[in-house]
Design a protein that fits this description.
The complex is a heterodimer.
Chain A lengths: L25 E5 L3 H13 L3 E5 L2 H8 L17 E5 L7 H10 L8 E5 L4 H9 L4 E4 L4 H33 L2 H9 L1
Parallel strand pairs in A: 1-2, 1-3, 3-4, 4-5
Chain B lengths: L2 H17 L5 H8 L8 H24 L6 H18 L2 H15 L3 H34 L12
Helix pairs in contact in B: 1-6, 3-4, 3-6, 4-5, 5-6
The chains are: A alpha/beta, B mainly alpha.
InterPro entries (chain B): AHP1-5/YPD1 (IPR045871), HPT_dom_sf (IPR036641), Sig_transdc_His_kin_Hpt_dom (IPR008207)
Function (chain B): Functions as a two-component phosphorelay mediators between cytokinin sensor histidine kinases and response regulators (B-type ARRs). Plays an important role in propagating cytokinin signal transduction.
Protein name (chain B): Histidine-containing phosphotransfer protein
Chain lengths: ~190, ~150
């Protein structure tokens, strides 16, 4: 089974509104199977994630605002932290969905995880090459979901810590330390 | 039958399903996801499985009865059924689907007909057993008892 790739490629989200404690992760799950949708939704809820579930890649694109051919921008204000998609779906596959997401400016940084019941190495390679964060074999385990969540929370926490550090640096620039010391002497 | 006896019956019955290979550990995963806030999770997922499977088996029968069998239609159905049976832990149904798919690949119509019968047999078996399991659970709950936790050591 593929290991979780720690998100080295992920850029720290530059979200200035993030000065409180991190919000629950919002996961968009895509699967044409009714049974699997119910299952993944439960796995994610149990892992304290906010979940949106759709039954096709087309609906996923609609949700993200990427369904209009002319613009590959998407809904800029929509906060999605992770997309988990089945590979084999009628119509558009999870692989094609992955490509569309990576082409969009609003969502290319969102990690996309592919799920499949088939352990086909060339398929896995192709998905990872196209920028998938991870490839999970179905049935997905609760431990897989928790591992994903934990690695994403680390990034979110890092982002939170960095934004605090950034704010502190900005405050210092207004009152440089040496001038504060000078004033203190008087 | 008193409550303790009913609970013991349920445990023994559940154990037998695992020992016979009708269910595998994925079913345990489902049970572990059930709690007070979601007390019907397992039966809900299983009900979806029954609905999906009934539809797929019907479609498969129709597809295989055609003059010229379109395997491009047959294989995705079997793949779907393999997926959902795997997701709920219906091991024997899943295994029957794996065999079925290999004959789809060979485009062997006769073998596929046999496979369909095998899949149907395994499906009706697991359906019957799970319905019995849920009835036992309902009886326990109706008597004011708790469903005993799943024993993993066997």
């Amino acid at each position: 089974m593929a290991e979780v790739l720690l998100p080295r490629k992920m850029e720290i989200p530059n979200d200035p509104s993030k000065f409180g404690s991190p919000d629950p992760l919002h996961v968009l799950a895509v699967d044409d199977s009714h049974v699997d949708r119910k299952f993944i939704e439960r796995l994610l809820r149990v892992s304290s994630c906010k979940v949106t579930v759709v039954d096709s890649a087309t609906r996923a694109l609609q949700y993200l605002g990427l369904d209009v051919e002319e613009k590959s921008v998407g809904f800029e204000d929509l906060k999605v932290n992770l997309i988990m998609t089945d590979y084999s779906m009628p119509g558009m596959t999870g692989y094609e969905l992955l490509k569309k997401i990576k082409e969009s400016s609003a969502f290319r940084q969102v990690p996309v995880v592919i799920m499949s019941s088939e352990n086909i190495l060339p398929r896995i390679d192709r998905c990872l090459e196209e920028g998938a964060e991870d490839f999970l074999l179905k049935p997905v385990k609760l431990s897989d979901v928790k591992r994903l969540r934990d690695s994403l929370m680390k990034v979110e926490d890092l982002s939170f810590t960095k934004s605090i550090q950034k704010r502190e640096l900005e405050t210092e620039n207004v009152y440089p330390v040496h001038s504060q010391l000078k004033r203190a002497k008087i | 039958m008193d409550l303790v006896q009913m609970q013991k019956s349920l445990q023994d019955y559940t154990k037998s399903l695992f020992l016979e290979g009708i269910l595998d550990s994925q079913f345990l995963q489902l049970q572990q996801l059930q709690d007070e806030s979601n007390p019907d999770f397992v039966s809900q997922v299983v009900t979806l499985f029954f609905q999906d499977s009934d539809r797929i088996l019907n479609d498969l029968s129709l597809s295989l009865d055609q003059q010229v069998v379109d395997f491009k239609k047959v294989d995705p159905h079997v793949h779907q059924l393999k997926g959902s049976s795997s997701s709920i832990g219906a091991q024997r149904v899943k295994n029957a689907c794996v065999v079925f798919r290999s004959f789809c690949e060979q485009q062997n119509v006769e073998a596929c007909h046999r496979c369909l019968q095998q899949v149907k047999q395994e499906y009706y078996l697991v359906k019957n057993r799970l319905e019995t399991l849920f009835k036992l659970e309902q009886q326990i709950v109706a008597s004011g008892g708790m469903i005993p936790p799943v024993e993993l050591g066997f």
